[in-house]
Amino acid sequence: MKTTFRNYGSIPFFADDYRKVREFLIRINEKKMTEFRMPWGAWEWAVTHSGRDQSNLGKIGLWEYASELVAIATYECPLGEGFLIVDEAHAYLKPEMVAYAKENLCDKDGKLKILIKESDYEMAKTAKAHNFRPTQKMDRNAILDISELQSYALPEGYKFMSMEDGWDWQQYNHVMRRGFGGDENPEWNEKIEAERKQMLSSPMITPEMVLAVQTPDGKYASHCGMWYKSGEFYCYVEPVVTDPAYQKKGLGKAIVLEAIRRCGELGAKQAFVGSS
């Protein structure tokens, strides 16, 4: 039986192909984390991200074998950064995947970066044959054993709250824009509110794992998103942000450890955090 190729569907958010990609990413990391940069939690975050280019979903490439997804060539938010993920039982697809990405996933200036694991010599060799050049830029991940972690106390008057407790969407936007965008006074309107609700609309979200650190006067100083599926050995942190006005207080560390602790209570053994 041959492997077949097709393009991802053009329907945004939670169509059938979205689910198939998620199931593929769950399956290949089921026993051991092999795709640190694009586990299923990162895929969920990308699918609902307000910065994602929804007009080019059809450029995502899917390879199937016996109706099962075995490889993907995708972008995360904008075009120009490619993620090539393959079940190693179908490693012969790597040259085809690199060629496809080069043809379809470039940005408007014709540029493309692809993330290749240091251990994947075959993919690197193929990329070089397609005139990609290696750089010293690396994607780093921290692997934390949950049983060895200790909690980290918040300053007096600060507290954790979750989506399950009730969620202030304007404060969520405020900490995200302040922390990631550097906006001094983030704009707020119905359109922005809808975008923020979209970003936390994944059916895989566990509300009690989506946290904020609330200041004594009710503002969100830090935010941590967490992805965990019952029965898995790992949880995945994405994103983490702290308002610059509240940095250097240990809030980012505290909220990450609290989110991880909650996953540990549900059975997770390890946590993966994008971090150097």
Give a structural overview.
With 276 residues, the protein is α+β, with helices and mostly antiparallel strands. It folds into two domains: 136 residues, Gcn5-related N-acetyltransferase (GNAT) (Aminopeptidase, 3-Layer(aba) Sandwich); 132 residues, Aminopeptidase (3-Layer(aba) Sandwich), CATH 3.40.630. Helices cover 29% and strands 22% of the residues. It contains seven helices and eleven strands. Helix 3 packs across helix 4.
Tell me the name of the CATH homologous superfamily of the largest domain.
Gcn5-related N-acetyltransferase (GNAT)
Tally of structural domains: 2
| Mean pLDDT figure | 95
Largest sheet: 6 strands, mixed
CATH class of the largest domain: Alpha Beta
CATH architecture assignment of the largest domain = 3-Layer(aba) Sandwich
Global structural class? alpha+beta
Rg from C-alpha positions?
19 Å
CATH topology description of the largest domain: Aminopeptidase
Shape: globular
Main-sheet strand order equals 6-11-10-9-8-7
Number of helices: 7
Strand content: 15-25%
